[in-house]
Design brief:
This is (S)-3-amino-2-methylpropionate transaminase. This protein is an alpha/beta fold. The protein contains 15 helices and 15 strands. Helix 13 runs parallel beside helix 15. The protein is globular.
Length: 453
């Protein structure tokens, strides 16, 4: 059976050596990007969407370059994945060396140093100085699902408590844990049982203090679930897809105290917030909480698929031998990338850089808010910042306006992402390798889109 190979798209050398500039050579998407999108339509399942319809050939620093030689300012980092940049030299070197040595053995068949080294690093870096253990997987959803498995095994209980606006993944169990129906859950049920949802602290919408919001949530858990039936309370310290919701001070602390008092495993989903993104290595640190279990992924491995569950030794060790694992979990190439990325987070000043980026984002957006009542709220920490858009006459979420702003940004050479249960949040997740000039230019374009919408 003969076949014809699809035409390839040649790429320049990636990495931060790329010109750090916004450059539009064609209208976007350009002709070569449109060619790829046409091929996608004939080859890729329709359910796999593409938010920015371009054919990427190189990326690094703070830019993404397409096949038509357009250079976009990247304010999304592949959803907080390429925090160290799309082609960090240390990651590239480590991956290249590992590929030349071996690509796979399956750690549960034959062990290797990289897996153990990543586990040691995570045990050291995650909040708390207690004894810890780690298991590695491939995606954030896998990590969350395994964290729930472990909590149920440890406690002998079944119920899992999650929150309004939460996002935890797209597997059957994590769809149940996720709050938003479209596009994540619609038509894909029935979902896993014994999942209970309670109200989140969302200061812009509920006006409650942290302790007040926690009292509301805890009361609902105790009345509708029962503390003695609850295996785990699962929460994002700052919600991601839900709209970068930063809970009011004291909310996480009160929940942590309640879980400790009732033998409930506190799982912090740090998949999006982890690894310097919020101006701390982990977002839990901002509230001073020490989760029993932490799930990580996204920014950990510089763009390669790797996730982890790290937790108290007595909890993690409760799973029987063979109960945790997976063919590709802790792949040696991904582990090599993670070790290099972790080195960059610790030694390249990226935590401080995240804070600097946050100062720019929050400062400029709050200044814009003073003159534009459509900006209902500006919030976030570090390089994880959101602008929530509303109808100023009613205060209702304005998803249509949000879509126009992001579309304008794309057409003018800036990649920006939306978020939020109501679809009315523009989220900013620039790579920590972006320079100030590009960051300001990208913001200029986004705010210009808001002004002209």
């Amino acid at each position: 059976m003969s076949s014809t190979a699809a035409p390839s798209i040649s790429a320049p050398t990636g990495g931060p050596s790329l010109p750090q500039e916004r450059r539009l050579v064609t209208a976007v998407p350009g002709p070569r990007s449109r060619e790829l999108m046409a091929r996608k339509a004939g080859a890729v399942a329709a359910g796999v969407g593409v938010a920015v319809p371009i054919a990427v050939v190189a990326a690094g620093g703070g830019v993404v370059v397409d096949a038509d030689d357009n250079s976009f300012v990247d304010l999304g980092s592949g959803i907080a994945v390429t925090s160290v940049g799309n082609a960090h030299p240390g990651v590239v070197a480590a991956v290249t060396e590992q590929v030349a040595a071996f690509t796979h053995t399956c750690f549960t068949i034959a062990a290797y140093d990289g897996y153990v080294a990543v586990a040691e690093a995570l045990n050291r870096l995650t909040p708390g100085d207690h004894e810890k253990r780690t298991a590695l997987f491939n995606s954030g959803a896998e990590a969350v699902e395994n964290a729930v498995k472990i909590a149920r095994k440890h406690t002998g209980r079944q119920a899992v408590v999650v929150f309004d606006h939460a996002y935890h993944g797209r597997t059957n169990l994590t769809m149940a844990l996720t709050a938003k129906n479209q596009p994540y859950k619609d038509g894909f049920g029935p979902f896993a049982p014994e999942v209970y949802r309670v109200p989140m602290s969302y200061p812009f919408h509920d006006g409650l203090s942290g302790p007040e919001a926690a009292k509301r949530a805890i009361s609902q858990i105790e009345k509708q679930v029962g503390a003695a039936n609850t295996a785990a309370l699962l929460i994002e310290p700052i919600q991601g897809e839900g709209g970068f919701v930063v809970p009011a001070p004291g909310f996480l602390t009160a929940l942590s105290e309640w879980t400790t008092a009732n033998g409930v495993v506190l799982i912090a989903d740090e998949v999006q917030t982890g690894f310097a993104r919020t101006g701390a290595m982990f977002a839990s640190e901002h509230e001073g909480i020490v989760p029993d279990v932490v799930t990580t992924a996204k920014g950990m491995a510089g763009g390669l698929p790797l996730s982890a569950v790290t937790g108290r030794a007595e909890i993690m060790d409760s799973a029987h031998v063979g109960g945790l694992g997976g063919t590709y979990g802790g792949n040696p190439i991904a582990c090599a990338a993670a070790l290099a990325a972790i080195d960059a987070f610790e030694h390249d000043g990226l935590i401080d850089r995240a804070r600097e980026i946050g100062d720019v984002l929050l400062g400029r957006l709050r200044t814009a808010q003073t003159t534009d009542p459509r900006i209902g709220d500006v919030r976030g920490r570090g390089a994880m910042v959101a602008m929530e858009l509303v109808d100023p006459a009613t205060g209702e979420p304005d998803a249509a306006l949000t879509g126009k702003v992001v579309r304008h940004a794309f057409e003018h050479g800036v990649i920006a992402l939306t978020a939020g249960t109501y679809g009315n949040v523009v989220r900013f997740l620039p790579p920590l390798s972006i320079d100030d000039a590009l960051l300001h230019e990208g913001l200029d374009v986004v705010l210009e889109g808001l002004a002209t919408a």
